[in-house]
UniProtKB/TrEMBL annotation:
Keyword Acyltransferase: no
The name this protein goes by in its record: Bacterial Ig domain-containing protein
Boundaries of every Bacterial Ig domain copy: 42-107
Pfam families xrefs: Big_6
InterPro entries hit by this protein: Big_6, Ig-like_fold
């Protein structure tokens, strides 16, 4: 299977992002596909250690394939041709922390898209308050908070696909574009000047909670990198650290700040 996206420069996110002058984001979604056609999509509901089925929604009529960490197929199913909903029975329950790879595969075109789901303890169905751990559900916090507080979100995010743009800060604006076809692109503008610290990067999404995600970036050259985001609404996110605390972040030469990114229509 071919990687669908090509990186022209390395990503530097919340923890030290570089270079405006250079030419140039538990479950996990990796943008892998052939580059000549749009891949199918899939969302996966949280899998617990007592789950007997994997459920969610995908592109209508596609095959849904579940594999383990050894790339062995353990279950198969098909998304509804009318709604895209699917329910695939597991051969057995899985241990907490186990990674399952859930694929949407278009058998006609050969295109595919998958999410890596980390099996959670059944106790995560109830809200708790603690430091950042696998027992939490949805997390919210402020930059001054030392702990993350869990609460159920009133919205649901299944994919970062789209263009997300920050408000202007001291004349600077940052834009993230997530595409299942071309990967991740970062754009920085200052007045009439534009730079792309990252173009067409292969990315994956590790979902810590439904609204707290880790973005993993694989460049064509250079080191892999990652950053964290928290969705504050269905169409907004902020950059946070690994403990889900809001931090000042930057891309390229843009000044570090608490940027809020809004999905563009």
């Amino acid at each position: 299977m071919k990687k669908m996206a090509v990186v022209t420069a390395s990503l530097v996110a919340a923890f030290g992002l570089m270079g405006l002058g250079a030419a140039s984001y538990t479950s996990q979604t990796t943008a892998n596909a052939a580059t000549t056609s749009t891949s199918p999509t899939i969302s996966v509901n949280t899998i617990y250690n007592n789950s007997t089925k994997v459920t969610g929604k995908a592109t209508k009529g596609v095959a849904v394939v579940i594999r383990n960490a050894k790339n062995k197929t353990i279950a198969k199913g098909t998304a509804s041709s009318s709604t895209g909903a699917y329910s695939v029975k597991l051969p057995s329950t899985e241990k907490t922390g186990t990674k399952l790879y859930v694929y949407a595969h278009n058998n006609k075109t050969g295109r595919y898209f998958y999410r890596i789901m980390t099996v959670k303890a059944a106790s995560t169905k109830s809200s708790t308050t603690s430091s950042s751990t696998s027992s939490k559900t949805t997390s919210t916090s402020s930059s001054s908070s030392s702990k993350s507080t869990s609460s159920a979100a009133s919205f649901k995010i299944s994919t970062p696909t789209g263009t997300w743009k920050s408000a202007t800060y001291k004349g600077w604006a940052i834009q993230y574009t997530f595409s299942q076809k071309t990967g991740l692109t970062e754009k920085v503008t200052y007045g009439k000047k534009t730079a792309y610290p990252v173009k067409y990067a292969t990315y994956s999404v590790t979902t810590k909670t439904p609204t707290f995600w880790k973005i993993n970036v694989t460049p064509k050259t250079g080191s892999k990198s990652s950053f964290y985001m928290r969705f504050t609404a269905k169409n907004k996110f902020v950059i946070v650290n690994s403990k889900n605390q809001v931090i000042k972040a930057s891309v390229g030469k843009a000044p570090a700040a608490n940027y809020t990114y809004t999905l563009q229509k």
